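$ fold --in a.seq
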Amino acid sequence: MNLGGALVNAYRGQLEAEMFAGFDTPLGNSSGVSITLWYATGPLLAIAPMIVIWHIALGSTKASATVVATLLAAALAAWLGHIAADRAARLKST
């Protein structure tokens, strides 16, 4: 599943110039946080839902919970694949 997050990041495109122009705070400029969140979005899209899916699968004693978790994981993988394919198509067209 983390492969889906990596693909989303791989086809993200060039970092926008606005990301480097953050705003000044007492703790420093905010551009570092913005750039970190920009690159962390892909893996977070894969990892955060998987935590919920694992909780469903492992938290129940019913066999149907495993089926539900498997279907949710497949849907998540398809969604991340769609996002990566869409971004790849947009990058290819530019």
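$ fold --in b.seq
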Amino acid sequence: MEIKTNHHYYPLLYFYELPEKIQKEMKENHLNEEYIEGTRFLKYKGTFYALHDFINSSLSKWDGILHINPYKAILIKLSNCGEAVKVATLYC
């Protein structure tokens, strides 16, 4: 198992801060528009991720994990102010 990070914090975005194209796609793919508009997002390596898609991580020092495939996951660590996340890629 290998974890790679640049130790930078990425800002958490509100739905209205996302590009219009991304907002439109999300509205088309989600049934509850109010739910997605209340969600925070992060942009990592060109992809937008909803914070609610991450589950609690059992890995020390990381708050959440999102499995991309059986061999790769994204880890997040919330900043002290809660407005940004440190992001890493986990390779299994």
